[in-house]
């Protein structure tokens, strides 16, 4: 399939629904997101409890299923304290700015084909746009303003540092995320989310564009400030980060924004790389109606839950990394790899569209693979050299410490040295000091 032949069903099916159908869709999306947040918080704690061989929530409700609801009620009933000296308007608006864009982004996510709903033919998608994919990126970028403004308005050094970290982190990982979408646009030939799903009928983009898919999985964790990338709220160095001065419902809004963002980026990964609502190929081979009616909602949910489980798996498996490592991963690894990969995809697509022989395409692919291997080998070699230099430096430091016990530590005077601030020389005892009998000869010289 060439770029010019990209499958796009058109946008004629959108914008013609009655107002009450649109209202029902918006209400269903809102309820779905809120239920996902409650269930994801519970699953987060239950699954990590199982990973760490302990019980998760198991008291409130059957099997602890209502624990998230109880936590929400508890947070809403806490006293809402606003610190003195904060910018009240920005301080109050920041949690809402962080939460609202995530709800907007979900409006362009397709969860099924056209169906008949209360006698009206309508797609299982709130709306679609010629640049719907850019709407997803725009809403993801706007959401960080809430975090930055919340940290700045709190008038706290910990909150300000958390906001600055979040802004730097989003800038670096937003670039890598946007680059991972470029290859998808090249293969689908459209920016509409419904057209991207239709373009994956022959084969999912997670298979064709595997490097873009893997990098997107990393960037979506960085975008949502989840472990191991939750440096904007690192308890070890900046207390609660940008949320340090927030409590009650405002803290709940930040908490809600984090989990709604997780739901949104997981839905985007399903739409852009995992075939959206299309059934897996083994099912379509023996069931012709697998992609018709309301059945595609089931396939979409299965893929969506698999990606959401990945969030929990990563959080329960990996420790928090250092902030410099976070920045190096974004700027020195993900973005350069994406640039090389996109260049390779563009060259291959042009050759295929121009009808180039398979040998030429294979030669180009082999050339890019050789460049990647050489770059990885060079990076690994330089990393080994840096590790060897650091090890030699540590060995030299240990040697100096062995030769001089006071090296690199607190300056402790030797036992026969005078007290600090004393003018008495170290050679003799202080006047009036008691000298042991066996040492008198050494002191007096008798």
From TrEMBL:
Example of a GO biological process term: aerobic respiration
Membrane-crossing segments per the record = 19-43, 89-109, 129-154, 175-197, 203-221, 259-277, 297-318, 330-352, 358-380
The EC number(s) this enzyme carries: 7.1.1.-
Please name the InterPro entries in this protein's record: NADH_UbQ_OxRdtase_su1/FPO, NADH_UbQ_OxRdtase_su1_CS
Task: List the Pfam families.
Answer: NADHdh
Location of the region described as Disordered in the Swiss-Prot/TrEMBL record: 404-446
Q: Where is the composition biased (Basic and acidic residues)?
A: 435-446
Q: How does it sit in the membrane?
A: Multi-pass membrane protein
Which catalytic reaction applies to this protein?
Answer: a quinone + NADH + 5 H(+)(in) = a quinol + NAD(+) + 4 H(+)(out)
Q: Which UniProt keywords apply?
A: Cell membrane, Membrane, NAD, Quinone, Translocase, Transmembrane, Transmembrane helix, Ubiquinone
Q: What molecular function terms (GO) are annotated for this protein? A: NADH dehydrogenase activity; oxidoreductase activity, acting on NAD(P)H, quinone or similar compound as acceptor; quinone binding
An annotated GO cellular component of this protein is: plasma membrane
Main subcellular location: membrane
Q: Which PANTHER family match?
A: NADH DEHYDROGENASE SUBUNIT 1, NADH-UBIQUINONE OXIDOREDUCTASE CHAIN 1
The record's subunit annotation is: NDH-1 is composed of 14 different subunits. Subunits NuoA, H, J, K, L, M, N constitute the membrane sector of the complex.
Q: What does this protein do?
A: NDH-1 shuttles electrons from NADH, via FMN and iron-sulfur (Fe-S) centers, to quinones in the respiratory chain. The immediate electron acceptor for the enzyme in this species is believed to be ubiquinone. Couples the redox reaction to proton translocation (for every two electrons transferred, four hydrogen ions are translocated across the cytoplasmic membrane), and thus conserves the redox energy in a proton gradient. This subunit may bind ubiquinone.
Please name the HAMAP family in this protein's record.
NDH1_NuoH
This one is known as NADH-quinone oxidoreductase subunit H
> Which species expresses this protein natively?
Streptomonospora nanhaiensis
């Amino acid at each position: 399939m060439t770029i010019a032949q990209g499958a796009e069903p058109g946008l004629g099916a959108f914008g013609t629904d009655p107002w009450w159908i649109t209202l029902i869709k918006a209400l269903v999306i809102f309820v779905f997101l809120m239920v996902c947040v409650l269930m994801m918080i519970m699953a987060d704690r239950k699954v990590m409890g199982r990973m760490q061989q302990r019980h998760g929530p198991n008291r409130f409700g059957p099997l602890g299923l209502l624990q998230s609801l109880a936590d929400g009620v508890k947070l809403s009933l806490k006293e809402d304290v606003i610190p003195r000296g904060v910018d009240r308007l920005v301080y109050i608006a920041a949690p809402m700015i962080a939460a609202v864009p995530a709800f907007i982004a979900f409006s362009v996510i397709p969860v099924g084909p056209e169906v008949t709903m209360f006698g009206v033919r309508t797609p299982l998608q709130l709306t679609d746009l010629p640049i719907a994919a850019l709407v997803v990126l725009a809403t993801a970028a706007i959401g960080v303003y809430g975090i930055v403004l919340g940290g700045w308005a709190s008038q706290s050094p910990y909150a300000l540092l958390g906001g600055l970290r979040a802004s730097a982190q989003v800038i670096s990982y937003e670039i890598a995320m946007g680059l991972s979408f470029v290859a998808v646009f090249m293969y689908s030939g459209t920016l509409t989310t419904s057209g991207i799903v239709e373009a994956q009928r022959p084969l999912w983009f997670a298979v064709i564009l595997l490097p873009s898919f893997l990098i997107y999985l990393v960037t979506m964790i960085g975008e949502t400030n989840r472990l191991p990338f939750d440096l904007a709220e690192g308890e070890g160095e900046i207390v609660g980060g940008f949320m340090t001065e927030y409590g009650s419902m405002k803290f709940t809004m930040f908490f809600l924004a984090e989990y709604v963002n997780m739901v949104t980026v997981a839905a985007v990964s399903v739409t852009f790389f995992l075939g959206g609502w299309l059934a897996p190929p083994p099912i379509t081979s023996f069931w012709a109606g697998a992609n018709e009616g309301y059945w595609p909602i089931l396939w979409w949910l299965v893929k969506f839950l698999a990606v959401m489980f990945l969030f929990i798996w990563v959080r329960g498996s990996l420790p928090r990394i250092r902030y410099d490592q976070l920045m190096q991963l974004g700027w020195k690894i993900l973005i350069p790899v994406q640039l090389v990969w996109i260049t390779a995809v563009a060259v291959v697509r042009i050759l295929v569209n121009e009808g180039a022989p398979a040998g030429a395409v294979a030669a180009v692919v082999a050339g890019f693979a050789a460049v990647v291997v050489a770059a990885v080998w060079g990076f690994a070699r330089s990393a080994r050299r840096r590790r060897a230099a650091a090890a030699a430096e540590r060995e030299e430091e240990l040697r100096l410490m062995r030769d001089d016990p006071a090296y690199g530590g607190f300056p402790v005077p030797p036992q026969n040295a005078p007290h600090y601030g004393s003018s008495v020389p170290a050679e003799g005892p202080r006047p009036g000091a008691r000298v042991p009998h066996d040492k008198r000869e050494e002191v007096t010289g008798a």
